[in-house]
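Quick one:
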Amino acid sequence: MTKSEIAELKNANNGELGKYLNPANDTKTLFFTLDKLGRLPESFDGKYFVPLCKHPAEKIRLLAVKNLGKLCDEAYLTHLENISISDESTMVRREAISSIGRMRNKNAIPVLINSLNDSDPKIVLQAIRGLLVFNDNHQVIAELKKLINHPNEVIRNVIEKEYFDNSKSTYLENHCKSPDHLKNVAVNGDVLKVLKVVQDESIHLTFTSPPYYNARDYSIYQSYNEYLEFLRDVFKEVHRITKEGRFFILNTSPIIIPRVSRQHSSKRYPIPFDIHPFLIEMGWEFIDDIVWVKPEFSAKDRNSSFRQHRKPLAYKPTAITEYLMVYRKKTHKLIDWNIRQYDYKTVQESKVLGEIDKTNTWNIDPTFDKTHTAVFPLELCLRVLKYYSFKNDLVFDPFGGSGTFGKAAQSLDRFFFTTEISEKYFQRIIENIGQNVLFNSEFPNKYYSLHEFKKIIETIK
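Output:
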């Protein structure tokens, strides 16, 4: 039987279609018929689905319950409740609760409330979804509010958003704006000291690559814990100055500290994985991981010894990737809310044109600089800016390096703000970005010492 024939039968003759829904039929016939039923007419007799809800095949039971739910018929409430409790398949049980919720019937409230105690979080979420329809019911509200202490984080987030979030999803005039005194500014100073005088919610995007732990001459720390604590302090300040719901992209990778001698082993530090828990704790929400893939010739070969002796346990792959860990400042507001803060013209002019990256692997050649030993490729900066910011946004790099991110920002009509503690690299920023402003002469590039920057802030206050 074809899909079109099934459509004709379901609208004309339930009994004729019932022949194909006989539990005695083979699984293939049953699956095809149930799967192709689509929307059911109000007059459809659900009695054909009831025996199939006990079929030995999980996929048949699942489709039978799903089709029964399409009828939104209170007559099947008890039947669906029993399935939600007793079926051995959690998928079938979830579908039963979903079907009960779709009834939008007050008689289903006790069943859905009982399901809030289920051990499967997805069943609880389906029950919450069904109960939210009755948000004027005091019993429903009281039961749902209790879930604010549920062990599952997704459930807690839903309840917090529905009942404990006091923020308003309205237009905020200042969301798309940023302080003029930070636009196209580079500060030569300790990033923590600089950020201490920057006001809350000033920037739209941060993209940075922190100094690698004791792997470069410009980043020496007494211990790995000291290094992680320093990054935690910096990124906590970045969180404070970032606007609600906006992004922070961290470019880093595990690094190797060479061994002291042949009698000792080298040490590999998983920087992105160790810093991640700190970021979540301080209020960043993990969104994506993007893998920056470099050409093999650009990385140090770690296979030479292994290729010769081929002994197990000694394999060490050549590292040609780095991570771009994408985070968003935690909020209950959706991405669409952020977009709606901008005027139509800005949104249109900020659209990402041409080819886009369809996967989370970006193949980009590294860049080498005459002064800085580890610099952003311009292409990497351009992609991040296009995907995660709008025209005229203020974007920030707390570890300015050679200033590539600032240069990329101006080329895409964004304002940059950056800090760099090294005098040598700060001079490279000035040389690299220069004095020219590509899109807005009202805010020429400005380069301050920490002392000068603080005086600017004091003047404004």
